[in-house]
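Cross-posting from the chemistry board since nobody answered there.

I work mostly on the small-molecule side, so proteins are not my area. We synthesized flavin-adenine dinucleotide and want a rough idea of how it might sit in this target. Sequence and SMILES are below. Is it possible to get a predicted 3D structure of the two together?
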Amino acid sequence: MNKQREEFQAKIISITKHAHHFIRVECEPLTKKIEKEFIGGYIKFLNKESDDIVARTLSIADINSSGHFLIDIVDHKNNGPAQTFFQKSIINQEFTYYGPGEKAHVHTDKIQYFFIGDYTAFPAIYAQIKRLENKKINLLLIGEENSIEYFKGIENLNIKVVKDIGDDHLQDMAKEFNIVQDFIWAAGERTFVNKVRSFLKKNYELTQLSKYLSSYWQNGLNQESHSKLKKEDQRV
Ligand SMILES: Cc1cc2nc3c(=O)[nH]c(=O)nc-3n(C[C@H](O)[C@H](O)[C@H](O)COP(=O)(O)OP(=O)(O)OC[C@H]3O[C@@H](n4cnc5c(N)ncnc54)[C@H](O)[C@@H]3O)c2cc1C
């Protein structure tokens, strides 16, 4: 059953292609302002067309000087309510959302950061690394070679792009990772996040780790089915 939450309205100001794999949607919040502190946080887009409320989480990639928030939707070609809505959306169209929710907490006092993510996590990763100036940042991106484009303009990143994540990538990372001084962040498709989860569990004292792991979606499952599994994973 859905919790009772306050709903807000936003209006679509522009829709552009962004960094090969995304559509960037600029949205004007109509009912309440969204403060800059929510960059890297999220909204829950509500599909009002079905009888049950269907909610889809999307990161707030940025907030521009007009106070409009930007969301970057992965052009994933599967028919989900969020994908369908934003692919067909037009300028001045309005939509309903819950939120905003806060970004994941990442300690800014660490020396080195390891971010692992697929396209769905790029907006959140981008927002996090913008806060981490003068830190050593390693990105392991799961996607096509050109995914690097999303992070254009941010300097001094150590970026590796892979099609799929294997134990060898995690072992390479582990060689440089220090559980006291460093932070690891992984989000995206559930099976890959769980690979990272098991690897860390096997190799480190979890309680000492500085980490954020979150499954954002699962291949072949809609968000309702994925959310049930996600809750189970977090209990482990
Ligand atoms: C905290 C958080 C932040 C997120 N931020 C973003 C964001 O900024 N941008 C973004 O695009 N997504 C983001 N996501 C992921 C997004 O919520 C899911 O991808 C969601 O399932 C999309 O909803 P849908 O209605 O399009 O598809 P659903 O109805 O959920 O699924 C329909 C079908 O599409 C497939 N599918 C769903 N997502 C993808 C995908 N990315 N690639 C390939 N197939 C897919 C499903 O496996 C299913 O088969 C975020 C998720 C979380 C939890």
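Reply from a structural biologist on the board:
Welcome over. Reading the output above for you: The helical segments are 81-88, 122-130, 167-176, 190-203, 223-235. The CA atoms of residues 23 and 87 lie 8 Å apart. Happy to explain the token format if needed.
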